[in-house]
Known about the structure:
Elements: H1 2-17, H2 21-37, H3 39-43, E1 46-48, H4 60-68, E2 72-79, E3 83-89, E4 96-98, E5 104-106, E6 121-124, E7 128-130, E8 136-137, H5 143-148, E9 156-160, E10 166-167, E11 181-183, E12 188-190
Parallel strand pairs: 1-2, 1-6, 6-9, 7-10, 9-11
Antiparallel strand pairs: 2-3, 4-5, 7-8, 11-12
Amino acid sequence: MEKLRHSLRKKKLAARKILSSAEVRSKSNKIKKLLFKLPEFQKATTVMFYVSFGKEVATHAMIREALNQKKKVVVPKIKSKRTLAVYEINDLNKDLERGSFGILEPLHSKRRITPKKEIDLIIVPGVCFDREKGTRLGFGAGYYDRFLSGIKDTTALIGIAFERQLAKGVPCMVHDVNMHKIVTERRILEFS
């Protein structure tokens, strides 16, 4: 199964990599519009975003808009033993610095851990998502899988991805956590 996951991961990363910066911006903006209309987003007080890099669905504009809407925004930082901790930010430009893998993370001086139980909505990144089951395939290190395993039942999990990142029959592992919804530039997929 790991061979299948590796092959699918490689294929979907290549499909994402060929997008131009303009395409990433345009498609990400469409995803943002759909995401912000969701009731889960509108009623959430505390939202966890990932800070995008490379050709991921761009979250910087989403984070700024959420902050403008007076939502509490938390973002992850890689901790020891391949785990994530989340910290509140108030300003995308001032509260982040380059961290692990070159990804923007909360400044050391701004770090105050936000407990998982306070998070109402998690915007989840992925390399690939199963369009029928909501299964997520990440980069393979398991950071999000471990983090998501300990959240409260009422926390909404919404994966965001480009349409080209969807697949049918994504092989899943026992520890994989399915999304409640996936938002692409074209549609919203819901799972029970």
